[in-house]
């Protein structure tokens, strides 16, 4: 099959894909972290953060559609072949982390439901079941059957969000009660920005198959912005009202036990599929002869093992770690592509030492802004600073590179 014949995904396909990806227990839990801000300030942080983060996400996707290349391959434009290998390894590690996080939070929610309904308390069993279902979803691939299944899943998940929203917004304490704990507005904003940012190393893996640039970008923006913002708001409201953002508790209270079980499993599978599948795509940047689908299944198996064996509790720190690497990385790539008109991969460029050094500086600056509790968070100022520095210095640093001798 030719590459052009694969470019058949419409705006509707991307809207449902990213809306389904956004509807997950992990995003609800992330929204719950903002509870100390209260509902009004938490809502402001969520909407502003997602406006910035989703726009950056879509800009990365535009590169994939225009050049018809996966996300990590596009980093060769700024960092060279070996530079892209470094980020590929880091991306595989974060995707394994995401796979494990998604499986464990989904398994915990389902386990709470089965424990309440039938006294079935087996977290490991549910982790294995969810992991196996993700492998099946990966095996189905991105054919027409997968698209139909994804549409059905999104409809069911959409109904879930309505149910959760009704449960939360009918409580009048939502707008006056504060959540427990302490958090600055800047850190809340950062937690909203970093979630869409975490998808930046993945989005072009899917937008490269878009029929049109507008369809891929518009569908991705609408699906993710509204889906993720909604999940954050549900988590924020649940944490304020009940001090527990886990949706299983709310669904059990609404007597939706068996329905809740199925929907939470579905939400976890549809979102984690993207992580596992992109881990396969990313590894192909280093080892192009590997089978993408087989690699994705292996990554799911490893992620399932991590979910069972490793105690993943530092969720907030994990999100900051992702932001510290990928904020400066994509600040450089987006600056190169959209502002410096550096749009093509140079076959002879192996390493651009200047951009790698600038990326390391960005990671250092990221944690300085986190410690400062800056009102705009860390991603926004770091990306602006790194972009400006790159615009000023690129004529000099473009010479700091290692090239292949033909």
TrEMBL record:
Please give the coiled-coil regions recorded for this protein: none
Q: Tell me how this protein sits in the membrane.
A: Multi-pass membrane protein
Regions crossing the membrane: 12-35, 41-64, 85-107, 123-140, 152-171, 183-200, 221-243, 249-274, 294-312, 318-340, 349-369, 375-396
Give the domain of life: Bacteria
Main localization category: membrane
Q: Where in the cell is it found?
A: Membrane
Pfam families in the record: Transp_cyt_pur (PF02133)
UniProt keywords (A-Z) are:
Membrane, Transmembrane, Transmembrane helix
Q: Which GO terms describe its cellular component?
A: plasma membrane
Gene Ontology molecular functions: cytosine transmembrane transporter activity
Instruction: Tell me the InterPro entries matching this sequence.
Output: CodB, Pur-cyt_permease, Thia_CytX
PANTHER family assigned: CYTOSINE PERMEASE, CYTOSINE TRANSPORTER CODB
Family recorded in the similarity comment: Belongs to the purine-cytosine permease (2.A.39) family.
Any idea what this protein is called? Putative hydroxymethylpyrimidine transporter CytX
Q: Which organism is it from?
A: Desulfosporosinus fructosivorans
Q: Which gene encodes it?
A: cytX
């Amino acid at each position: 099959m030719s590459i052009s014949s694969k470019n058949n995904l419409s705006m509707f396909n991307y809207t449902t894909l990213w809306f389904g990806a956004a509807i997950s227990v992990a995003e609800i839990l992330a929204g719950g972290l903002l509870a100390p801000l209260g509902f009004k300030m938490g809502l402001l942080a969520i909407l502003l953060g997602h406006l910035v983060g989703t726009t950056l996400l879509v800009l990365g996707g535009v590169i994939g559609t225009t050049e018809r290349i996966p996300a990590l391959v596009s980093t060769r434009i700024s960092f060279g072949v070996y530079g892209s290998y470094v980020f590929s390894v880091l991306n595989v590690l974060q995707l394994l982390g995401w796979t494990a996080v998604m499986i464990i939070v989904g398994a915990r929610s389902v386990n709470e439901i089965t424990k309440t309904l039938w006294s079935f308390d087996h977290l490991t069993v549910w982790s294995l079941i969810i992991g196996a279902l993700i492998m099946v979803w990966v095996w189905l691939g991105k054919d027409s059957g997968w698209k139909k299944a994804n549409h059905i899943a999104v409809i069911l998940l959409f109904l879930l969000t309505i149910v959760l929203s009704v449960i939360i917004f009918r409580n009048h304490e939502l707008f006056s009660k504060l959540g427990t704990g302490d958090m600055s507005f800047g850190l809340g904003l950062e937690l909203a920005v970093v979630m869409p940012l975490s998808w930046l190393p993945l989005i072009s893996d899917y937008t490269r198959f878009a029929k049109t640039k507008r369809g891929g970008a518009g569908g991705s923006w609408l699906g993710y912005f509204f889906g993720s913002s909604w999940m954050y708001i549900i988590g924020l409201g649940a944490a304020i009202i009940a001090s527990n953002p886990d949706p299983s508790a709310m669904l059990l209270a609404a007597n939706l036990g068996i329905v809740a079980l199925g929907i939470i499993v579905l939400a976890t599978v549809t979102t984690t599929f993207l992580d596992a599948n992109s881990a396969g795509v990313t590894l192909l940047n280093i080892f192009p002869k590997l089978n993408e689908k087989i690699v994705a299944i292996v990554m799911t198996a490893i992620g399932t093992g991590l979910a069972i064996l490793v105690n993943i509790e530092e969720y907030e720190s994990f999100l900051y770690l992702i932001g510290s690497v990928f904020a400066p990385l994509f600040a450089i790539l987006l600056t190169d592509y959209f502002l410096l008109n550096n749009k093509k991969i140079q076959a002879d460029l192996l390493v651009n030492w200047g951009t790698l050094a600038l990326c390391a500086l960005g990671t250092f600056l990221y944690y300085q802004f986190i410690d400062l509790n800056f009102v705009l968070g860390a991603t926004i100022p770091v990306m602006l600073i790194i972009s400006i520095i790159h615009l000023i210095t690129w004529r000099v640093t473009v010479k700091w590179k290692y090239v292949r001798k033909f």
